[in-house]
Specification:
9 strands; Nucleotidyltransferase, domain 5; alpha/beta; 5-stranded mixed beta sheet; 43% helix
């Protein structure tokens, strides 16, 4: 069970104001707005009714080693550099405040601000030219019908590895901040691996899965994949069939372009660095998850 979120003093004041409004809001509605359980709001209203205060009662135990100002500084340091570890934040805090606290205290303060250490989401590194090409592609096809998309044979290669590099970089983020820029790790395509396969499918057709052994060249792509697998499937789909492949160097070799042109294959223009636009990526991910 995830730890219960605590309301800060400002949020407690808002909750009481909503409850005491001219048209009081139900406690369940106040809890929904503040993303806490209804029991938190019930206890807050009971405490305010009995004491007239929204501050939490003083609890017995050891006093905090940090002041509210130092707590805000810890939060600001984590938000400025999302990849900073608790040990780095501890050293940065010591310079302006001369405060000597443990790394666990740093983590506790960040947890109090609803910041948790999480692995960053990963996305392709896109230049402005890549982004412009992706927008142009989407605008060209935004009005395509289901019938038009059913005529597209999408293809891709994927490498499956038994062992991979476990990136241990972590970032501080709040709920809902998984995909903002400062919490996302960018990376380029990886190298190495164990097994590479090629496949293609459309709405009603699919090719056999082909095991790519060794390096894939333009000649091998033409002779081992396109001629025996892709082109026969496109012919079954009819004259309106469109073939999609990415901009990998073997796919754009001159021998490949000449062969597809001679075979009368309609080829879809594909923006660079756009794996997420290809529906076959969902198929690869479903296999990986097995």
């Amino acid at each position: 069970m995830p730890p219960r979120r605590k309301l800060n003093e400002f949020e407690r004041g808002r909750a009481v104001a909503w409850f005491q409004d001219g048209v009081p809001k139900p406690r369940r509605e106040v809890a929904r707005r503040l993303h806490v359980s209804i029991s938190v709001i019930v206890r807050l209203i009971q405490r305010f009714t009995a004491t007239g205060r929204v501050q939490e009662r003083r609890r017995p135990g050891r006093l905090k080693k940090t002041t509210p100002r130092e707590d805000r500084l810890i939060e600001r340091l984590a938000l400025q550099t999302r990849t900073a570890s608790s040990s780095i934040i501890r050293r940065q805090l010591r310079v302006p405040t001369n405060t000597n606290i443990s790394q666990q205290t740093i983590r506790n303060r960040l947890h109090g601000f609803n910041l948790r250490s999480r692995r960053p989401a990963v996305r392709p590194r896109l230049t402005p030219a890549h982004r412009a090409a992706r927008r142009a592609f989407c605008r060209r096809h935004v009005r395509w019908t289901r019938q038009q998309w059913s005529q597209v044979l999408v293809s891709d290669e994927s490498r499956f590895t038994l062992n991979h590099n476990d990136d241990r970089l972590r970032v501080w983020r709040r709920q809902g901040e998984r995909y903002i820029d400062v919490t996302v790790q960018e990376k380029v395509a990886f190298g190495g691996g164990s097994v590479m396969v090629w496949g293609a499918f459309s709405l009603h057709h699919r090719t056999p899965l082909f095991h790519v052994q060794g390096n894939l060249t333009g000649l091998r792509y033409r002779d081992e994949i396109l001629r025996p697998l892709a082109v026969p499937t496109l012919q079954q789909m009819g004259p309106q069939a469109v073939y999609q492949d990415d901009n990998a160097r073997p796919h754009r070799a001159r021998v490949v372009n000449d062969f597809l042109q001679q075979s009368g294959v309609n080829r879809m223009e594909w923006p660079a660095c756009s794996p997420d636009l290809n529906p076959i990526e969902n198929l690869w991910m479903s296999w990986i998850a097995r």
